[in-house]
Design brief:
Layout: E1 3-7, H1 18-31, E2 38-44, H2 46-57, E3 65-69, E4 85-92, H3 93-103, H4 107-122, H5 131-152, E5 158-162, H6 164-173, H7 180-189, E6 194-198, H8 208-217, E7 222-226, H9 230-239, E8 243-246, H10 266-278, E9 283-287, H11 291-299, E10 304-308, H12 310-314, H13 318-338, E11 341-345, H14 353-357, E12 362-367, H15 369-378, H16 380-395
Parallel strand pairs: 1-2, 2-4, 5-6, 5-12, 6-7, 7-8, 8-9, 9-10, 10-11, 11-12
Antiparallel strand pairs: 3-4
Helix pairs in contact: 1-4, 1-5, 3-4, 4-5, 7-8, 11-13, 15-16
Length: about 400
């Protein structure tokens, strides 16, 4: 059996990720040993939950969550319930959103706690009966949430290393060292889950020989970043990387300055994606964290989106950084809900990575410049291991 979710208001209004909430609910029910039971969860607004609160509890005003066990007398004796239904949980998303802002947590984190609270009520726990029982219920909620954090680590965000800047140093002298192929091997030995390289039209750092040697030597995954240029497309189809990430590319830029305008060039990008899809190569689109770009990416057949984190990393005030972070979180959840897989990257460093790595919907982070910079002082192996530890630890919390 399972949890049945019902939305009496449009979940898109709050950028709710239904599949994410369902997965967390399933994990909670497994930990509560009720995975073979059913539960109905209704997400509604303050007006409707306020009406229910008055109708069934004779209390005025909206609340965050209500629980209605199938049978109050039997709720503590689950094995005697022939229907094996726990009951109903009603949650006001409006109130949850206000509480999430006040607590400085994500909406999905707050909703997960309310689902946990509601499930415990269905199992017979009641914090209103006594102070002792309230403490016991609170402790159990905290334990369950912590176990969910640990479960999240089984789907830990991965770290892919971009070795372009090793080639940039090489090209500064026009010699053969340092070698990005050797750097990629060190990164993999230090725990990187993938290697990223950008083969630019002007070959300013990574060149054709590099990508061919890397394809032969990489043991993890090769992600080839590229513009939708005919020559580079031909090379990529011949190379057969594990995936390609299409990025905007300008000759005069020092580094990629923003995401693709997928919504404005759907026809061209769709043709490119179709060619790679036919060749069995999954495509990611590097986009700004905007819902319209996410939707356009889905429409033209992308498998992944890589969310541009540059504005978040470059923010000069806490308020601006928080706004940029929220845009990334909301875009990631929207992409997840649509069925896209999500990566993120650009500008991430040892201070800004943790919050992005903690987002439950993001599979992989692409980081290059910060790690190569750190490697100047501590060595590449240690620089990778330090960043991997940040990603790992952050992945174990919401």
């Amino acid at each position: 059996m399972t949890a049945v979710f019902t939305f009496n208001r449009d979940p898109a209004k709050f950028n709710l990720c239904k599949k994410l909430l369902q997965r967390r609910t399933a994990l909670l029910m497994e930990k509560l040993q009720t995975a073979d039971h059913g539960v109905s969860i209704l997400f509604t607004d303050d007006q409707e939950i306020g009406w229910m609160n008055k109708q069934y509890r004779n209390r005025d005003g909206a609340t965050n969550v209500l629980s209605f066990p199938l049978n109050d007398q039997d709720s503590l004796l689950l094995n005697t319930i022939s229907e094996r239904e726990l009951g109903d949980i009603i949650i006001s998303v409006e109130t949850a959103q206000k509480e999430a802002v006040e607590m400085d947590v994500s909406l999905h984190h707050r909703l997960t706690w309310l689902i946990t609270h509601g499930l415990l009520h269905l199992l017979g726990y009641d914090h209103e009966r006594s102070e002792k029982e309230a403490e016991e219920m609170w402790d159990l909620e905290a334990d369950l949430m912590q176990e969910l954090y640990t479960s999240r680590s089984t789907q830990m965000t991965q770290l892919a290393i971009n070795v372009d800047h090793v080639a940039t140093i090489r090209e500064a002298r026009g010699i053969t060292e340092p070698d990005p192929v050797a750097a990629a091997s060190i990164c993999e030995l230090a725990g990187a889950a993938g290697i990223v390289v950008h083969l630019r039209e002007d070959r300013r750092h990574i060149n054709d020989r590099d990508v061919r040697l890397l394809r032969q030597t990489i043991k993890t995954r090769m992600n080839l970043e590229m513009g939708a240029n005919k020559e580079i497309i031909r090379i990529a189809l011949d190379l057969q990387p594990d995936m390609v990430t299409l990025v905007p590319e300008k000759r005069q830029e020092l580094t990629t300055e923003g995401g693709l305008n997928v919504a404005g060039q759907k026809k061209k990008l769709a043709k490119t994606i179709a060619r790679f899809t036919k060749a069995g190569i999954p495509v990611s689109l590097f986009i700004d964290p905007e819902r319209k770009q996410v939707k356009a990416s889905l429409d033209i057949g992308a498998t992944y989106v890589e969310l541009h984190t540059g504005k978040y990393c470059d923010a000069v005030s806490e308020e601006t950084q928080e706004n940029e972070y929220q845009q990334i979180a909301e875009a990631a959840e929207a992409a997840y809900q649509m069925g896209l897989r999500i990566n993120a990257g650009h500008g991430l460093d040892y201070q800004t990575t943790a919050r992005i790595a903690a987002l439950d919907t993001i599979e992989e982070l692409s980081i290059g410049h910060a790690i190569i910079t750190r490697a100047v002082f501590v060595g590449l192996d240690q620089a990778v291991r330090e960043m991997k530890a940040i990603v790992r630890d952050a992945s174990m919390v919401f």
